[in-house]
Amino acid sequence: MPRQDPDVIKQQKTLSKQEIPSATPTAGKISTSIVKPGAPVFVTTLIPEVEVKRGEMTELSCQFQGDPPPSVSWLKDRHLIMRDPDFDVRSKATSSTLTIYYPTIDHQGLLTCNIANKHGKASTCCIFKVTEDVLSRTEIGPPQEVKVTDESVFTEEEMIEEELKCSQTHQAH
């Protein structure tokens, strides 16, 4: 599961039965209009921006309604996700989940869930970002000089001396 705040449910937008997202999605922005009875509407939409660590399995879910129940499709960067081993789509009558098993930077982009029936269509989307789980060079620090000796044990005085040398080296950078 992606790292999410406990308030993640609050971040999901809930729409009333009289509203519908625009059919041309822009992450984080939703335009609404009055809909016909039975037209598909999202009850919960995707979070506008999702960021996960590389390799961290992620599920994106949304809930919707419509009569008849709408058909569902998922897109990445406006291309239909079909028969892709990196993704799994599971849809029910009122919900759909996109699972990304091992996210990499190749999976970054605009992910969209489209729903449609004979009365209309709706979309929700998010910007999906993948971060590397590697310490940056500033967190690691500059390269350090390593002294190799034949002695297997340092005296207490030698250990203090080495520690002082290391701390002076870090202060100089």
From TrEMBL:
Residues 1-10 have a biased composition (Basic and acidic residues). SUPFAM superfamilies: Immunoglobulin (SSF48726). One of its GO terms (biological process) is heart morphogenesis. The keyword Translocase does not apply. Residues 1-25 are annotated as: Disordered. This is Ig-like domain-containing protein. Keywords: Immunoglobulin domain. Residues 11-25 have a biased composition (Polar residues). Signal peptide: none annotated. CDD domains: Ig (cd00096). Residues 40-131 form the Ig-like domain. Pfam families: I-set. The keyword rRNA-binding does not apply.
